[in-house]
């Protein structure tokens, strides 16, 4: 299983609309990726390890797939549409990491 993590850096003054991201953007992602995407999770950054310091990321979105090939096949036809929606909820420039999942929550 792989996890595609989209990490949104949290510089001062960053704009991020969680309501839009969690409902409209992730709904778009679900529709585009279909059954290839096994699960979706969203994290909201609240702090870093240092006391009274900003979280390094304002948000993180995680998408789970059976394989890298399955992700690539489902994402490629919709990449432009999904990426074009970013300006509707943020001005942060996301970073993407694809990881092999070694230990997952139950049910995945």
UniProtKB/TrEMBL annotation:
Residues covered by the EthD domain: 18-92
Domain of life, source organism: Bacteria
NCBIfam families cross-referenced by the UniProt entry: EthD family reductase (TIGR02118)
Protein name: EthD family reductase
Species name: Pseudomonas benzenivorans
């Amino acid at each position: 299983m792989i996890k595609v993590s989209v990490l949104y850096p949290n510089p001062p003054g960053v704009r991020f609309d969680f309501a839009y991201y969690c409902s409209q953007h992730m709904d778009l992602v679900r529709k585009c990726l279909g059954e290839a995407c096994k699960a979706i999770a969203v994290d909201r950054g609240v702090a870093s390890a240092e006391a009274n310091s900003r979280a390094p990321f304002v948000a993180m979105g995680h998408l789970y797939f059976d394989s890298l090939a399955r992700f690539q096949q489902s994402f490629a036809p919709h990449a432009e549409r999904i990426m074009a929606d970013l300006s509707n909820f943020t001005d942060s420039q996301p970073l993407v990491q694809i990881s092999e999942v070694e230990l997952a929550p139950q049910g995945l």
